Structures are given as structure tokens and as C-alpha cells.
Amino acid sequence: MSDSGTARIGVTGLAVMGSNLARNFARNGYTVAVHNRTAARTQALIEEFGDEGTFVPATTPEEFVAALERPRRLMIMVKAGGPTDAVIEEFAPLLEPGDIVIDGGNAHFEDTRRRERELRKRGIHFVGAGISGGEEGALHGPSIMPGGSDEAYTALGPMLADIAAKAHDGAPTVAHIGPDGAGHYVKMVHNGIEYADMQLIAEAYQLLRSVAGYPPARIAETFRAWNEGRLDSYLIEITADVLAHTDAATGKPFVDIVADRAEQKGTGRWTVQIALDLGVPVPGIAEAVFARSLSGHTGLRDASRELPGPVSEPLEGAAAERFAARVEQALYASKIVSYTQGFDQIRAGSETYGWDIDLGAVASVWRAGCIIRAVFLDRITEAYTARPELPSLLSDTGFAQEIGAAQEDWREVVATAARQGVPTPGFSAALAYYDALRAPRLPAALTQGQRDFFGAHTYRRTDREGSFHTLWGGDRSEIPAG
Questions:
Q1: Is 203 a catalytic residue?
Q2: CA-CA to 277 of 20 to 30 Å: which in 237, 246, 267, 387?
Q3: Does 194 qualify as catalytic in the annotation?
Q4: pLDDT attached to residue 2
Q5: Which residue of the set 47, 116, 136, 194 is catalytic?
Q6: Selected catalytic residue, list 96, 116, 187, 306
Q7: pLDDT at residue 266, rounded to an integer
Q8: Would you say 353 and 181 are in contact if contact means Cβ atoms under 8 Å apart?
Q9: Is residue 253 within 8 Å of 247, Cβ to Cβ?
Q10: Is the separation of the CB atoms in 87 and 65 below 8 Å?
Q11: Sheet architecture: strand order including 32-35
Q12: Which parts of the chain sit beneath pLDDT 50?
């Protein structure tokens, strides 16, 4: 099997994402081998899009591998989990040392680490590539977060740079994130931030509707105006489009005919679960995950609708406009906090797994192509590039000043929401996180005292080193612990 084929890269798994990535490579001048378990899908791709570039269709794994030049670059685009393992088991025996297998799905990073270890024993490189941008991004330019060996990235990186989205300065939105599972880990956290971002935007919408009294079309105009400033982002842009849309069947605002139950595919949950394992506080992301979960508990919600509480009273005229301006401040400040939590989690994972992730490079990769692309990612890139040791985005002078300027409005929005009974778990969690960081003392001292009382878990003192335990059931004297 030493003869080389003609295809620079191959894609197996030709659902929409896989098909669009294959077309993206072909459009950029690469000969692409294509394969699918169901041969009819391969044939359909050739028939419909064969004129976009040079494709080499293959009906069997053997034909597919034979079509690839050395080192073989084989991209897997199938469902994460068992199906990915099954494809690897099918193709790995056909590969040789130095070949590269790329998983472009939404794999759990621990699965990627396992697969990388197993294939490394055979001399095969395994790259876990987080890809963001959805179907359109896959075709026109996604944000790509590959993790794997340096050697694999040397052979693969230039090709990924060609198909990646380009930021406003022309830089491709791809970077070698780090070894083994680093790429899929960063993609996981990207999705966690995405959950938080979407929740904050949804809360801003609800406040503008319930408190400011704006109809969806007016809120769409508000979001379009916000998108001209510091909130400029893909999610703000599409929010305006969704809110402006009218349902053709009923003539009602589209947002009013959609069931208020948000679904999720799991990456947000993974982010929170791993944050708990690492001991990293990400309450904004967690509240976003829980908000989606709560929305789906329709029985519980139906049973609770008559519970006592305030009913929001919409404002009018200038008062409504002033409140809308406050919401913009609260949204921006809360977004900064959400990104802060996400980058803190990336740093913690990097330290735990020895990945040495460049946070500035991560921010740069997210500037275009991905779902959370936003204008202020340029500033995040600059902040971490200038100070790689920056302990938190909130430690950056520029962001700290903006948070300071948003203080009064942010707090007033959260207080108004509480008074009027409008749930804002994202805004509230972001503010609580911020205040917890800046507090001179936290009530955790009392919590630790309680733990020592009922479980002899010990505590540390502020005035001397060491761990101590109080004899609560006796004379309450203190003894050194351990």
C-alpha cells in the first residue's frame, strides 16, 4: 500500500457538514476523495456539485484510502461517539505510519485524547478539529480549532488555512490549539460561551418586551442599532432577523408562534460538567444550560403558573427608551463576564492537561467563521497577546473601565427584572460573579466553619499558616489538623 493516490485530502461522511467541507476543499483547488457508507450519497454529491472542483469518488474504504496521496489526510465527518470509533476501526488497518486522521465532528475531548493515544501506537496521527460555523461556515469558511501533533499540523495546517474564514485583517481563522484533545476542548468551551451569549440575548429581548413594552419588530430595530456598535456580532445580527420575521401562515411575529422550549445537543452540558471537575466557576454558562433545561419542563411550568408574584408593567415613551439603553449596558457587561469565564476554563484545561494553549490565538480564531464571532474579539486577542499571563479579562484595563461605566445600569436592570418578575438568570449570575470577585470577604468563611462543625473538615486561618479544627462538641478549643 505504498503507492500514493492523487487526492490531497479525503472526506468520509457526506451529510451536509461533510459534503460542504469537501466542496470547500475542492473550491480551493484541492483534489478531494469522497466516500460515504451509503454510496448513493457519494454519487449525489458528484452529480450535483462535481463541477465545483476535482473529486475522486470511492465506494469502498479500500478505494478511498488508495485515492489519497501520502501522507494520507482522511477527514471523518460522522456522528460523534460510537459511529466515529466504528469508522476509525474500519479505516485504521488500511493506513500507514505518518498518515493523518482528522475528526471534524463535535467529539468529547476525552474521546479525542483516547483516540489519539491509540492511533499514535500505530504511528498514525490523530487530529481532533473543532469546526464552528454550521453548514454555511463549512462551505464558505468556518473557524477551525485543530488539536494534534506538530507534525500533523505542518502537513494539514496550510490546507485548513485555505478553507477557513478570513478575519477583517485577512488572517485565516485557524490555529494549532495544542496536543491531542486541545482543539475539541476549546470548541466545547466555545459552545458553552455560545449558550451563555444566546441566553443573555434572550433575556435582553424579554426585558425589552415585558418592561420596555416593545413589540418584536421594534426590538429587531433595537438590535440592529446595537449591532452597529460594540455589540456587533453574528448572534446580535441574526437575532434582529429572527425578531423581524413574520409567520406566513398566521401573520403573527415569528417569535410568537415558536414553542418556548429550547433544545440542546450536549456541548453546553459538557462545558459545565468539565468546569465542575476542574473547579472553575462558570455560573453564566451553567445558568444558560439550566435555562434551556427549565424551558423544556412544561409540566412543571404549567403547574406553577398561578404562583404569586409581580406582573410586569410596561414603560412608555422616554422611560422605555432609557430602560432599553440600560439593557444594552447590562448585556455588554454580562457578555464580557461570560467570555471571561470561558477563557478562564480554557486556561484551567490547558494547565491541567499540559496543552500550553495560547489564549490570544483562540480569540483570534473566533473573530470570523464561528457562531460567537464578534467585534470585541479583536480586543480580547489584543489583551491576551499583550499580556499572555493576564489572570482574567476583567483585569484588562479597557474591559474593567467599561464594566465600571456599566455598573449603575447593569444593577438597575437586574433590580428592575426582580421587581417586575422577569427571570434574568444570565444577567443576575454575571453580576453576582463580578461582585463575588471584587468582594473583600466572602461568606465562604462561614461555610467552612459549618463544614468543620459537622464533619471536622478543618479550616485555615487568616493570621497564621496551617489547618485547624475546633472541638465543637467539647470545650471548643482549637487544635492543629493533620
A1: no
A2: 387
A3: yes
A4: 38
A5: 194
A6: 187
A7: 82
A8: yes
A9: yes
A10: no
A11: 55-58, 32-35, 9-12, 73-76, 100-103, 125-132, 143-147
A12: 1-3
